[in-house]
Specification:
- This protein is α+β, with helices and mostly antiparallel strands.
- The protein has one domain: Porin.
- The chain is built from 2 helices and 12 strands.
- The strands form 2 sheets. Strands 3-4-5-6-7-10-11-12 form an 8-stranded antiparallel barrel. A two-stranded antiparallel ribbon has the order 1-2.
Length: 251
Amino acid sequence: MSIQGICRCIFIPIISCLLILGSCSSAWAQAADTAATDSTAVTHGKKRELAGRQISIGFDIAHPIINAWMPERYGYELQADYYLRNEFYLIGEGGWGGGFVNYPDLKYNTTNNFFRIGFNKSALHRDTPHDWDMMLVGLRVGYAYVQRGNANFAVVDSLWGNVYDHQPAKSFSAWWAEVTGGMRVELTKRVLAGWNIRAKFLVNSKSFKDLAPLYIAGYGKGDKNSIFDFNVYLSYAIRWDRKHAGEVKPK
């Protein structure tokens, strides 16, 4: 099993248990005002949007740990989301990283920046305006600008021995689509934690026929057309009241 697979098996169950405990504690804390909210959320057959506004900014804490175990690659990821309404969240993600190929007969390195845009939809019913826990599904489109340095390689020839050559530096783009799922809970006031599992599908794989990057930050192995990945985010939320939040909205 790969190091990334081991990390997935170790961290996701642990984080899930912590998030479930956090979700239970927040449920107890919100139980007191549930009855009052239920009496005002629906009036004369009309439903009111319960939530206010929220922007959360988070940092992926899983990949720095993987970086320490896999020195041939590195990556860092940030996430920001904005609550729209009806449990939809607009998502923006980005980061940077790179990889190193250091074989006896081949040496080169790559670096890249990336961003992803998309949305999350919470599958959990919101009980109160203060309930921001979510079980999520979502879609993303990702883009990375990859720069590869000079590639030096050796070809073994039975007549002339080792023949050394190189390919010049090159830049190219990577595009992919993602399907993601996961959960997020509020551990304490405005401090959120959660995880995402991602299935990623490279769109322009033909761009990597010549010396594919060992690792593309934000995507994964450059020689794979599809890949599974995960993130564990720690986030901070900024909230404010929705304008005219007390108004009754039609269904």
